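Entry for the shared binder. Reason: the reviewer on the internal report wants the predicted structure included alongside the sequence.
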Amino acid sequence: METLALRLPSLTPSGVALLLLALQYAVLAPAWMVAALVLPGERRAAGWWAAHAVGSALALLLIVFGMHAEHPPARALGNVLAVAATLALQRGVWSFTGQRRWPVPQGLILAASVVVSVLAALDGAWVPARIAWVAGVWAALYFWTAADVWRHVRQSLHLRWGLLFAAPMLLAGLMLAARSLRALQSPETVMAEVLQNTVLSLGSSLTGMVSALVIQMMLVALVVSRMVSRLERLSRHDPLTGLLNRRAIDGLLQQEEHRARRLPASGKSVVPFSVLMIDIDHFKRLNDSCGHAVGDRALQHLAAVMGAQLRDIDHLARWGGEEFLALLPGTSGADALALAERLCGRVRSLPLASEAGRLTLTASVGVAEWHGQRDSTADLLRRADAALYLAKHDGRDQARRGHGPALEVVQAA
């Protein structure tokens, strides 16, 4: 430490800034290593980001050493490591987002960086070209990765502020692109900086420190956003079928009721909504004869079959046990009954393939429609449940419609 303290005063301000940036990466590397251990789902991505932090720290140390000791090979190796570390950052983003990997372009970029850096180490006339290439490639990789992050945030995480996540890389890319253009347009200025043992000005070095920290914060935000999304999904979805759970569908029913009650006050006609209460016939017998594993597969099979018959605006939930509930916005009782009949026929026509052979499943459905201002969600569900009970009592594999205090009995085709 004493030796390092004695040498620090002889470093340029930008060299000290780069050392601090290397220290920043050295602190981040073990943090990503720990993340790889405690977050199994993000292990590969966190491993790549740990490699990015380690590579960046080593690259900066070599660059500072090359600047201070006027050692071109060390500086060349540092530039190659900087590019390799950025490639590792990009690979981590690809692993995290599940996007397509491009190993061949990455290999070509790294090989070209090695060639340009070696030429610059052997001949100082190549130094501006090396700076232009490394900064330009670095900027291009940041732009490329920022686009991948933006796409993932919008399409997979379903968040509107995708640009906010991509902004740190975009800003860093713009800064590096400007440096690349400057090296091409004013090589004499760049050479003067090299001869003065500086690679970047103090201002750009400090900007690099901030950019690097913000990029790491962005990566952490990506991980946290995914964890929050998974927790939210777990709280709203049934783990076996992947459908909405009872709590989630209750909330949607309340929203639909509030919407239906608001429309008359606004002078608009009420678009009715309906629900389907669906029950797998003889499910207990299936569990007892074939085992609970086959029963679970039957639930998953029915969920997939029924979900395929619904519209994008409809909602299907596992209500409990072998019962399902479908919420159909903007659907009359007659249309809901027609859908219920189709569901019965579709379930019957698609047997379940299992270890016990092909099992023909059937379902009974109770249908109920919203009746207006005097109706309530509780009454709506009671009518659907009563209709379901009648469908099962009359032989199963059919649909019944709850219609006010009475039940309209309709045999499914």
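Summary line for the report: Strands lie at 274-280, 315-320, 323-328, 352-354, 357-359, 363-369, 399-403, 406-409.
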